[in-house]
TrEMBL record, chain A:
Residues 8-64 form the RNA polymerase Rpb7-like N-terminal domain. InterPro entries: NA-bd_OB-fold (IPR012340), RNA_pol_III_Rbc25 (IPR013238), RNA_pol_Rpb7-like_N_sf (IPR036898), Rpb7-like (IPR045113), Rpb7-like_N (IPR005576). The keyword Protein transport does not apply. Residues 83-187 form the RNA polymerase III subunit Rpc25 domain. It holds the Pfam family SHS2_Rpb7-N. Belongs to the eukaryotic RPB7/RPC8 RNA polymerase subunit family. The gene is P0640E12.113. GO terms for cellular component: DNA-directed RNA polymerase complex; nucleus. It comes from Oryza sativa subsp. japonica (Rice). This is DNA-directed RNA polymerase subunit. Its main location: nucleus. GO terms for biological process: DNA-templated transcription initiation. It is found in: Nucleus. DNA-dependent RNA polymerase which catalyzes the transcription of DNA into RNA using the four ribonucleoside triphosphates as substrates. Keywords: DNA-directed RNA polymerase, Nucleus, Transcription.
From TrEMBL, chain B:
Residues 1-131 form the RNA polymerase Rpb4/RPC9 core domain. GO terms for biological process: transcription initiation at RNA polymerase III promoter. One of its GO terms (molecular function) is nucleotide binding. It comes from the Eukaryota. This is DNA-directed RNA polymerase III subunit RPC9. Keywords: DNA-directed RNA polymerase, Nucleus, Transcription. Belongs to the eukaryotic RPC9 RNA polymerase subunit family. Gene3D superfamilies: 1.20.1250.40. Signal peptide: none annotated. Its main location: nucleus. One of its GO terms (cellular component) is RNA polymerase III complex. Pfam families: RNA_pol_Rpb4.
């Protein structure tokens, strides 16, 4: 779920940082620029991993700062398609579930990517009806395992209506259709039943 | 800004946890101030709840060498290392086309896929230490 991305950037170094050692100052400036921000197609920046090279230090005419050409690696949160993640259900609506990973919460699982037989119950919660007639509810704060099915980086909207959901620069679409996916409790329970059966056989 | 390499290498959850720890991330909210940013702290706390919390470099290396015979792709290995499957259902979620691929052994001969999955789970169990019990379970 985490990858490194190598980036080269022309970094203007503000004069108030000149009192600090160069590498520390560059790192602080990079953290200010990138930390906890989404870069389109790269993902969410978690941390500055390392600084590989620093060149230059030119002072351009009319500027009060020196500009360095810095090559560095960022630690990005960018799951690949097909990766398995575990999160908590943070909400639901008519389209599907919203899942949060604590540090990243723009994950949605649409209704058509849930196990066959999942529908909304009368109170609005999503529910899986099994062949045996059991009703398994997908409740708030339940731990859920899902497969990343796609990642979108929508462009910044020109107009934002008050009723719209807050803009998310990175959206992960998850799927819980398949073996072993869905609430962790479903599969943990299966295991116990299996063990009970095995014991009974013995 | 110029992106030189979009993908300069994948990291397992353990490596990220190790990196954040070396930078001084702690679970204590006050201890985080100054050393690492609040967003890094959140990632750290999330990772502590995953099976990565008690893995070591050696255990991952051991797993990677021992799982050669299962012919997993790197993506499969990453999923398995990050989430430590403990039941057959977990393995089916984490390994693509698990049923088809586990129906052959290392010499390419047909074998029972259920037994093969069990063998694989046994390997995972031996390589990685079990996750520590959850706090709620400890209170009980």
């Amino acid at each position: 779920m985490f990858v490194l991305s190598q980036i080269e950037h022309n970094l203007p170094m503000p004069p108030h940082l000149l009192s600090r050692p160069l590498v520390d100052a560059i790192k602080a400036e990079l953290e200010r620029l990138f930390l906890d921000k989404v870069v389109a197609n790269l993902g969410l920046c978690v941390s500055v991993y390392d600084i590989r090279s620093v060149e230059g230090g030119f002072i351009f005419p009319g500027e009060g700062c020196s500009t360095y050409k810095v090559s560095f690696r960022l630690l990005m949160f960018r799951p690949f398609v097909g990766e398995v993640l575990v999160g908590k259900i943070s909400g639901y609506d008519e389209k599907g579930l919203h899942v949060s990973l604590d540090f990243f919460s723009d994950i949605s699982i649409p209704g058509h990517l849930m196990q066959y037989g999942t529908a909304r119950a009368l109170d609005g919660r999503w529910m899986l009806k099994t062949e045996d007639g059991d009703e398994l509810y997908l409740d708030l704060d339940d731990e859920i395992r899902f497969l990343v099915s796609s990642i979108k980086y929508p462009p910044i909207p020109v107009e934002q209506k008050e009723t719209d959901r807050a803009f998310a620069p990175m959206q992960i679409i998850g799927s819980i259709k398949g073996d072993g996916l869905g609430l962790l409790a479903w599969w943990a329970a299966d295991e116990e039943e299996g063990e009970a059966e095995a014991e009974a056989e013995e | 800004m110029k992106i030189e390499k979009t993908n300069a290498g994948f990291l397992t959850n353990f490596e990220v946890l190790d990196f954040l720890q070396s930078r001084g991330a702690k679970t204590d909210p006050m201890g985080c101030l100054g050393a690492v940013a609040a967003s890094e702290c959140k990632v750290y706390e999330y990772l502590l709840k995953t099976p990565a919390c008690n893995q070591t470099r050696e255990s991952i290396n051991e797993f990677v060498t021992r799982c050669e015979s299962f012919k997993l792709t790197n993506a499969d290995k990453l999923n398995v290392i990050n989430w430590r499957p403990s039941s057959a259902a977990d393995a089916y979620a984490m390994i693509e086309e698990c049923g088809k691929r586990f129906s052959k052994d290392e010499r390419g001969e047909a074998c029972n896929e259920d037994e093969r999955v069990e063998e694989f789970l046994e390997l995972v169990k031996e390589a990685f230490p079990p996750p520590p019990p959850k706090p709620e379970a400890m209170i009980e």
